[in-house]
Write a structure and sequence with these properties.
The chain is α+β, with helices and mostly antiparallel strands. The protein has helices spanning 50-54, 57-63, 65-70, 87-105, 110-115; strands spanning 14-21, 24-31, 37-41, 47-49, 77-83.
Length: 145
């Protein structure tokens, strides 16, 4: 199988941002000299096009939201490595990573990204299971006798 990544990432041609959501972590590079959007999944080690990896159009649009907010659609290529969580949380992690990388590219974009809520990490995580209970909140059925 041929490699999708036919470019090198250097500090001169790229801008970096890390995005996190639930247990997913995405390391995102915005690349000036290409228009490819590639995701490398850590668990499989395979590179795939972003649209193929995300499977759903809604997730793909969510990932590209930071570009729409600042009006830079199609100006950058994306290379991202993702690990942990599921497809939805990985997509949101990539979105946060893109927003951070855009701020790295041009700090003047920060207010518009902040106003759109793209620089605020969504801190919601799965609540832990408690002892003496079935789950985080659900209790075992109570029997009088």
């Amino acid at each position: 199988m041929n490699k999708l990544k036919d470019f090198t990432i250097t500090p001169e041609n790229s801008f970096y941002g890390t995005g996190k959501r639930k247990t997913s972590v995405a390391r995102v590079w915005l690349l000036k000299d290409t228009d490819k959007m590639i995701v490398k999944a850590k668990d499989s080690g395979k590179e795939r096009y972003l649209k193929d990896y995300l499977q759903r159009e809604t997730l793909f649009n969510k990932v590209l939201k930071p570009f729409k907010v600042v009006g830079l659609e199609g100006k950058f290529g994306i290379y991202a490595t993702v690990e942990g969580g599921g497809i939805s949380s990985q997509a949101e992690a990539i979105m946060y990573g893109i927003a951070k990388a855009l701020v790295n590219y041009n700090p003047d974009l920060r207010p518009s990204l902040k106003k759109a809520g793209l620089l605020t990490r969504d801190a919601r995580k799965k609540e832990r299971k408690k002892y003496g209970q079935m789950g985080a909140r659900a209790k075992y059925r109570w029997s009088k006798r």
